[in-house]
Amino acid sequence: MNIKNGREIIGIVVLALVATYVVLLVGAITTPGNTTPGDTTPGNTTPGNTAPGNTNEPSAQQLQDQIQQRDVIIRKLARRIDELDRRIGAGPLDPAGAKAEPESAEHTQVTAVDPDQPPQPVSQKAVARSSKREGNPSQTAPGQFEVSEDDAERALERTLTATGNLLVPSGVAEVEPQFSYTRRETPTLVLFRQARNEYNWALSTRLGLPWETQFELSLPYNLVQRQVTNSFVSPIQEVSNRWGNSLGDVTIGVAKTFVHESGWIPDLLGRITYEIPTGPESNNQVVLPSHMENLGLSATAVKRQDPLVFTATAGYTKSLRTGTLDPGDQIKFQLGAFLGTSPETTLRSVLQQSFFDDTRINNVRTPGSGGVLSILNFGGSSIIYKNILVDLQVGLGLTDAAPKYSVMLSSTYRFGVPGI
């Protein structure tokens, strides 16, 4: 039993005691008093002792008025007791509501003592909170959750959207500025070693369209430092140190959700991207990660077990380049696990695996230039404001063809787009 129920029961007991006291008091008033100055006992009935002018008995009208007053008080007390009985019999009150409305309990005690005070109305806020909590329970199966308007602001869903595993709702857009640093170290010849420091800035946008479709656009800028050293001599000597920079390749894409999660069936979405060779191949004799013409197709499956989300992506990238350097086609796989540690914070681990074909130079295949690129990424994201998500990711290369390590920092801003 909570504190408020205990107070109301004490109020009922006090009302009952007051009613008993009033009944006894009225009964005492209506009892005839002793006559003065004489006695009315037998044997002492002289005319002087029973004179009409010497008695204290009330008149019949006074008794009738007192009885009516008593009946009014009893009826008020009875109504108050019935009201308290209905409140207690309606079911257990919400403890949160009792804390939020402490004045209501005080008013109940005062009205219980003073029957002439009108009853206080029940707090509508407490009723609204109780009705909201006692509404229809969620019909989703265990391990699943519905993405409501409030859930859409959670860091978990925002992170899934930023990483391409979920689409933004229709009429909503996201702008994501990014910065990344990548370190590569590759032996070029027996005596020389090449190291590259790649700095990349990008501005990505995502626009939610009708029919669960999303339009994507990315515009990068590249800055690359290339260092060549001679490792045969001691100490190691630097042979060259050059910098190159330029705008990168613009990438456009369209994604669509085809299947929604139901039971063991995960969410399924598909994506098609096209990388336009808008950037130069090199600058200041430094090869840049641009001037590629690629067409990519991918499919992503998403399975939720709140607060965990598992993702799997398979894709194929077709190289359309026919110039001097053709990097070859790629088959890509990706597995990820996302953990929502709180509504504002998400942690993740993603394994990227790519199998790429041999490189072609002037349409001549270079044997042994293909290989496997594996990267293990760890990331964390947090909502610092209602519409702003900040994300930090660190990648570790697992194969010789992969970068040694990489770091990426991004921030996503979400806003509504009218008319869509």
Provide the descriptors you would attach to this structure in a database record:
420 residues, alpha+beta, three-stranded antiparallel beta sheet, 6 helices
- End-to-end gap: 53 Å
Major sheet strand order? 1-2-3-5-6-9-10-12-13-16-17-18
General shape = elongated
**Radius of gyration in whole Å, from Cα?**
42 Å
Largest sheet data: 12 strands, antiparallel, barrel
Structural class: alpha+beta
Strand content: 35-45%
Overall pLDDT level: 77
> Which series of helices and strands comes N to C?
HHHHHHEEEEEEEEEEEEEEEEEE
Please bin the fraction of helical residues. Answer: 10-25%
Contiguous low-pLDDT stretches (5 residues minimum) are 32-55, 91-138, 142-149
Number of strands: 18
What oligomeric state do these chains adopt? single chain
The total of helices stands at: 6
Please tell me about this protein's structure.
By secondary structure, the protein is an alpha+beta fold. The strands form 3 sheets. The chain has a 12-stranded antiparallel barrel with strand order 1-2-3-5-6-9-10-12-13-16-17-18. A hairpin with a 7-residue loop joins β17 and β18. α1 runs antiparallel to α2 and α1 runs parallel beside α4. About 19% of the residues have low confidence.
Secondary structure elements and pairings:
Elements: H1 3-30, H2 60-89, H3 95-100, H4 102-113, H5 124-133, H6 155-162, E1 172-187, E2 192-209, E3 213-230, E4 237-247, E5 250-259, E6 267-276, E7 282-283, E8 286-287, E9 294-305, E10 308-319, E11 325-326, E12 330-342, E13 345-356, E14 360-361, E15 364-365, E16 371-385, E17 388-397, E18 405-416
Antiparallel strand pairs: 1-2, 1-18, 2-3, 3-4, 3-5, 5-6, 6-9, 7-8, 9-10, 10-12, 11-14, 12-13, 13-16, 14-15, 16-17, 17-18
Helix pairs in contact: 1-2, 1-4
